[in-house]
């Protein structure tokens, strides 16, 4: 089997629920990429790239398209056997430094091809099924105490056991927000807080002490991503578990955090770390260091959600952990402003991976278990498709 061509669909997504966080308003318009890689045996694989924009990842829809069409395809993919993952990753890394989201997109599609070629779900190729389904956190953007409490109750009423709050914009008000959410969801559900880098170490320590009476599960990325020493200072001076997210972008970044003993857990995203190949390395390295892992998504659609599901159920580090929630299906849930995916009919793929009662269930078809949905693609495609090589 050889790779012969690819097709790229630029996507433009406008979200029904816009997340307000310290980065700004996320979801007004997200420009993602859907990739098809074609083989000479009539099989294609799907990948999805979600950059969130240059402010977050140093990548954009334009750079992803450029990397894949002008570098990865001619230098690493054309004529190659899609099963040769190590070789392809080596060639992509040699051709391009960084650009891990573009590399993730390719990696997803290659694994999808492998599963389809062998007629098995992708999770069987990367560890088998450790868990049947994954408990998710329900995410709410920063707002008033009343608004955040109402959103939190919405998630708990639908079966979620953990609320992920976006804070870091208005520290004094957000203490009241945390209190209101705790009162709304009761003592038996968890609260996870994401600061998105917006505190100094001193601010983070002081603020976390003030919300600790409300029994916080963990606080994610309280300080700027480059400040590993500051992250460790926060961890050493509070009772609440401290997580690294943006600081742990690549496998090299995670290694530096682990060496510094700077966090209690890594908030991990397959969608930005290079795909399944690099993600396995990162997660097992993290657990070998005695640090926990929590999974998450970017703001993608059904391809990214399927990829997260396959990775999570195949991995004991994500399927069995000391937390009531692992993943975070914010993309589709925020896009449609829903608590589950049961009624979605115009995703870019079909079937849409199932989120119901706070759990994500892995698709059982070959590969990622999803196929292109022309109606959904028509709705979300933002520009003409780009074709390179031979396609069908």
Descriptive report:
The chain has 392 residues and is an alpha/beta fold. The protein has 2 domains: 3-119 and 371-389, Enolase-like, domain 1, CATH 3.30.390.10; 124-361, Enolase-like C-terminal domain (TIM Barrel, Alpha-Beta Barrel). It is 39% helix and 21% strand. The protein contains 14 helices and 18 strands. The strands form 4 sheets. Strands 6, 7, 8, 9, 10, 11, 12, 13, 15 and 16 form a 10-stranded mixed sheet that branches. Helix 2 (61-77) crosses helix 3, helix 2 (61-77) packs across helix 4 and helix 7 (201-211) runs parallel beside helix 8 (228-237). The longest helix is centred in the first third of the chain and has 19 residues, at 100-118. Pfam families: MR_MLE_C, MR_MLE_N. InterPro entries: DgoD-like, Enolase-like_C_sf, Enolase-like_N, Enolase_C-like, Mandel_Rmase/mucon_lact_enz_CS, Mandelate_racemase_C, Mandelate_racemase_N_dom. Residues 145-241 form the Mandelate racemase/muconate lactonizing enzyme C-terminal domain. GO terms for molecular function: L-Ala-D/L-Glu epimerase activity; metal ion binding. Keywords: Isomerase, Metal-binding.
């Amino acid at each position: 089997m050889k790779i012969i061509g690819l097709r790229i669909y630029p996507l433009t997504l406008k979200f029904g629920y816009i997340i307000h966080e310290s980065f700004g308003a996320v979801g007004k318009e997200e420009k993602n990429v859907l990739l098809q890689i074609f083989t000479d045996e009539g099989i294609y694989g799907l990948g999805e790239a979600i950059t969130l924009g240059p402010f977050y990842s140093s990548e954009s829809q334009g750079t992803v398209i450029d990397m894949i069409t002008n570098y990865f395809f001619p230098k690493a993919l054309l004529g190659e056997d899609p099963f040769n993952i190590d070789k392809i990753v080596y060639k992509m890394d040699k051709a391009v430094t960084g650009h891990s989201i573009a590399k993730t997109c390719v990696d997803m599609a290659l694994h999808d091809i492998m599963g389809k070629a062998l007629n098995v779900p992708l999770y069987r190729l990367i560890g088998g099924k450790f868990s049947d389904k994954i408990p998710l956190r329900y995410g709410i953007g920063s707002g008033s105490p009343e608004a955040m409490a109402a959103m939190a109750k919405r998630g708990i009423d639908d079966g979620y056991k953990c609320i992920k709050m976006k804070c870091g914009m208005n520290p004094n008000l957000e203490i009241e927000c945390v209190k209101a959410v705790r009162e709304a969801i009761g003592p038996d559900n968890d609260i996870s807080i994401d600061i998105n880098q917006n505190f100094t170490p001193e601010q983070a320590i002081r603020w976390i002490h003030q919300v600790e009476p409300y029994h916080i599960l963990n606080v994610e990325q309280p300080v700027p991503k480059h400040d590993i020493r500051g992250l460790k200072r926060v961890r050493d001076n509070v009772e609440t578990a401290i997580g690294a997210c943006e600081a742990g972008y690549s496998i090299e970044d995670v290694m530096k955090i682990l060496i510094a003993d700077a966090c209690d857990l890594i908030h991990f995203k397959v969608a930005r770390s290079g795909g399944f190949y690099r993600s396995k390395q990162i997660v097992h390295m993290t657990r070998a260091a005695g640090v926990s892992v929590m999974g998450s998504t970017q703001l993608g659609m059904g391809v990214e959600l399927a990829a997260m599901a396959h990775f999570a159920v195949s991995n004991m580090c994500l399927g069995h952990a000391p937390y009531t929630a692992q993943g975070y299906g914010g993309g589709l849930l925020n896009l449609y402003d829903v608590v589950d995916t049961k009624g979605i009919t115009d995703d870019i793929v079909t079937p849409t991976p199932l989120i119901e009662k706070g759990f994500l269930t892995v698709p059982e078809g070959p590969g990622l278990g999803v196929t292109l949905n022309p109606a959904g693609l028509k709705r979300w495609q933002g520009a003409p498709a780009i074709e390179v090589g031979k396609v069908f």
